């Protein structure tokens, strides 16, 4: 059964001190429902990662359904670390394909700015294995720092070359009205920025921001469909980055890329546009290489040479600005990615537009790399 | 300032955190740390506890400035990816200046305080790694 994306709602990622979690979620949800021209859904799937820690609400999906006026809907809360949003899209597609629902609202929401950064870092550290690993003060960025040094030393890639990855994200984000940091940066500024987890700096790291994004998914297109979801899948339970034989080639990402080829016959490099979960520069290049977009050790060089931007010979990567510049309101990010791709495919995307794009791919790994999530969407025009 | 350290949790993790207890899979022979109920490589539940060697090699390191609340006085935290035989461990590096860290250097395990809860008086210790001492003691 097909799953059509009929509604999209995105809020600008930023410091929304004036909006509560549910008010922020409502902005995205109402926009998605209005753009799908419906006011009732069978189910609401809510993606949120930090909201219990930051907003203190249990049964968030149930409370949100009430706050959004969606009486009678069945609800499902999805928490899958960095990839909660993609997991929610996968769950919503399953409900529709199983015949349990015809119309599903997916809402991703998180607020990361209600408390001081160091508290949020403590919470984000729990994206890593929490019974032993996260008892150390590894920080939210420490493992990404370890991987960055490993990458640079193995491939002989200099710090200055690596800086072209976040510079690419920022050059794309300057066109995106929903980006938290919509401006270009000079790659030379990256190594000189505030150190976060050496060799990574603040300009290699996603900003702490609030955001909400929403989608309406339906079994029937009703003439309004933006795109359809062709594949939504995930693979968990693999060794983490640091436990894996090769820390720079996570098996989880290899597995979802293999499923994409099996089910659709398409390789990641053959889609038109990709949104990648590049929480940090090192994770961005590892994801790009694990998906086969670049040869090992080459992703930052390819970014520098413009391979992943308009006019390049690879897919356009992160036209939104990626996690670095659009932002990463953790649980909401996957919903942003799929919403942005749907608007790209329907020609409605207000940021950097990839004209004629037919296929879009969203990929994220969990913080420690032990699981990966992938969604492929296709245009319906 | 409560930091919410749990007494039972601190007691439970003493094997892996104090003694580097890991698990060896009797089916595929691989060792993993921290020990899990099933082997993350092959899925087998036939595991035995083993103790990792206390000396190893630094495969990578990071100087972490974005330090979580409750530990900001420790900033910067030195973090290491340490190879102990066939296993990699992520742990803090201690007794070292960031400028002396090099990948490939030999390191050894020492027990150190990770965090303490000032209100409840709980202290969490764990294995950290320091550059391997050559001959004489550095007072560690």
Description:
The complex is a heterodimer of chains A (381) and B (140). Helices cover 33% and strands 18% of the residues of chain A. With 381 residues, chain A is an alpha/beta fold. Chain A has a ten-stranded mixed beta sheet with strand order 3-2-4-7-1-8-12-11-9-10. A two-stranded antiparallel ribbon of chain A has the order 5-6. In chain A, helix 4 crosses helix 13. Chain B has one domain. Chain B has helices at 7-12, 14-19, and strands at 21-25, 31-32, 47-51, 55-64, 77-84, 87-93, 106-117, 122-131. The radius of gyration of chain B is 16 Å and the shape is globular. The two termini of chain B are 29 Å apart. The model of chain B has no long low-confidence stretch (mean pLDDT 91). Classes of the chains: A alpha/beta (381), B mainly beta (140).
Which descriptors apply to this entry?
heterodimer; A: 381 residues; alpha/beta; Peroxisomal Thiolase, Chain A, domain 1; 2 domains; ten-stranded mixed beta sheet; two-stranded antiparallel sheet; 33% helix; B: 140 residues; mainly beta; five-stranded antiparallel beta sheet; three-stranded antiparallel beta sheet; 2 helices; 8 strands
Break the fold down into its secondary structure elements and pairings:
The complex is a heterodimer of chains A (381) and B (140).
Chain A: E1 3-10, H1 21-36, E2 43-47, H2 51-55, H3 60-67, E3 74-78, H4 84-97, E4 103-110, H5 117-124, H6 142-155, H7 159-162, H8 164-173, E5 195-197, E6 200-201, E7 211-218, E8 227-235, H9 251-264, E9 273-276, H10 281-290, H11 299-304, E10 316-317, H12 322-325, H13 333-346, E11 359-365, E12 372-379
Parallel strand pairs in A: 2-3, 2-4, 9-10, 9-11
Antiparallel strand pairs in A: 1-7, 1-8, 4-7, 5-6, 8-12, 11-12
Helix pairs in contact in A: 4-13
Chain B: H1 7-12, H2 14-19, E1 21-25, E2 31-32, E3 47-51, E4 55-64, E5 77-84, E6 87-93, E7 106-117, E8 122-131
Antiparallel strand pairs in B: 1-2, 1-3, 4-5, 4-7, 5-6, 7-8
């Amino acid at each position: 059964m097909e799953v059509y994306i009929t509604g999209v709602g995105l809020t600008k990622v930023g410091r929304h001190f004036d909006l509560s979690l549910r008010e922020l979620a409502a902005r995205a949800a109402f926009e998605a429902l209005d753009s799908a021209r419906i006011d009732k859904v069978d189910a609401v799937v809510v993606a949120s990662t930090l909201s219990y820690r930051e907003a203190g609400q249990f049964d968030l999906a149930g409370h949100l359904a009430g706050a959004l006026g969606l009486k009678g809907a069945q609800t499902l809360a999805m928490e899958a670390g960095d990839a909660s949003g993609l997991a929610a899209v996968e769950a919503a597609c399953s409900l529709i394909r199983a015949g349990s629902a015809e119309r599903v609202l997916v809402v991703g929401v998180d607020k990361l700015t209600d408390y001081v950064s160091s508290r949020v870092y403590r919470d984000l550290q729990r994206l890593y294995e929490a019974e032993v690993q996260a008892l150390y003060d590894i920080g939210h960025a420490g493992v990404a720092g370890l991987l960055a040094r490993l990458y640079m030393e193995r491939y002989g890639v200099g710090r200055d070359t690596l800086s072209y990855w976040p510079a690419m994200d920022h050059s794309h984000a300057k066109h995106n009205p929903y980006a938290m940091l919509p401006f270009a940066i000079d790659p030379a500024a990256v190594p000189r920025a505030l150190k976060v987890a050496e060799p990574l700096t603040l300009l290699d790291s996603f900003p702490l921001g609030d955001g909400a994004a929403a989608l309406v998914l339906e079994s029937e297109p009703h003439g309004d469909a933006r795109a359809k979801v062709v594949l939504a899948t995930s693979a968990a339970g693999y060794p983490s980055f640091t436990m894996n034989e090769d820390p720079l080639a996570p098996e989880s990402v290899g597995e979802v890329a293999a499923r994409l080829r099996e089910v659709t016959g398409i390789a990641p490099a053959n889609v038109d546009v990709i949104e990648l979960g590049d929480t940090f520069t090192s994770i961005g290049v590892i994801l790009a290489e694990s998906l086969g977009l670049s040869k090992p050790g080459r992703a930052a060089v390819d970014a520098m040479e413009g391979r992943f931007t308009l006019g390049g010979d690879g897919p356009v990567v992160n036209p939104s600005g990626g996690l670095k510049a659009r932002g990463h309101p953790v649980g909401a990010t996957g919903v942003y990615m799929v919403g942005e791709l749907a608007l790209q495919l329907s020609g409605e995307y207000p940021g950097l537009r990839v004209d004629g794009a037919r296929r879009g791919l969203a990929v994220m790994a969990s913080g420690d790399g032990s699981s990966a999530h992938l969604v492929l969407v296709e245009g319906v025009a | 300032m409560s930091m919410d350290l749990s007494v039972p949790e601190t007691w439970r993790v003493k094997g892996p955190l104090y003694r580097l207890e890991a698990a060896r899979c009797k089916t595929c022979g691989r060792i993993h740390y921290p020990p899990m109920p099933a082997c993350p490589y092959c899925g087998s539940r036939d595991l035995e506890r083993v103790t990792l060697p206390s000396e190893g090699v630094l495969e990578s390191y990071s100087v972490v400035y974005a330090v979580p609340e409750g530990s900001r006085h420790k900033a910067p935290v030195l973090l290491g990816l340490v190879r102990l035989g066939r296993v990699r461990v992520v742990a803090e590096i201690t007794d070292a200046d960031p400028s002396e860290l090099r990948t490939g250097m030999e390191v050894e395990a020492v027990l150190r305080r990770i965090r303490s809860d000032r209100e409840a008086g709980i202290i969490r210790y764990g294995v950290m790694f320091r550059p391997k001492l050559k001959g004489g003691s550095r007072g560690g």
